[in-house]
Design a protein that fits this description.
Blueprint (H helix, E strand, L loop, with lengths): L4 H28 L2 E6 L2 E5 L11 E4 L5 E5 L5 H34 L3 H43 L6 H48 L7
Amino acid sequence: MAFRYADFLGVTSVLIGALLVSASSLAQGSSARLIYCCDIGGQPVCGDILPAACYGRAYREISPSGTVRRVVAAPLTAEEIASRDALERQRRFDEALRVKQQRIDDALLETYRSLQDLDTRRDREIGSLDRALKVLRQRESELIERQRVLISEAAQAGEGNVPQITEENIRSLDSEIIAQRSVINAKMHERAAVLDRFDEDRQRYIQLTRATVPPDRR
């Protein structure tokens, strides 16, 4: 008996459809046969759905062939979450410090062409501060000398005969001398800070430049 071409196409379509349905059923059956296992007290507890005893625990997804397809970690405890967050904060803090130090190092190397250049800049700044201190101390000496003269005049005039203006000038000079000494102290602190800064920069500059020089050229 002969088949018409249209009949052949119809049969072929039916066979293809049946194969697709069969493949889909196999895939669904394979998925349905996944086994979920966790360990409790050293013993595995398994089921085709996740057993209630495995809630909150690490578990494994096992294929019908017995292969572990996926391992799901247990949820983190509150302490573990806190520890993880603390580590992350520390990591970000350390990274921020690293980036900041890198910027400082880059600026240091861009500012000074050599160690001698750094020392020259330090000497120039210290020299400027020393000249300012010399002027301030000279002013302090002048104020002290003016006060000394007034006190000498008051002593010669005798008690009860010192002009009021002289007494006022002596007190005014007291205030000026105290203020002048305060300015001198502030300038001295500034000078010490400049020396400390240049000392730190110098040590860091040596570390950075030595790191870029081959060992046989040091």
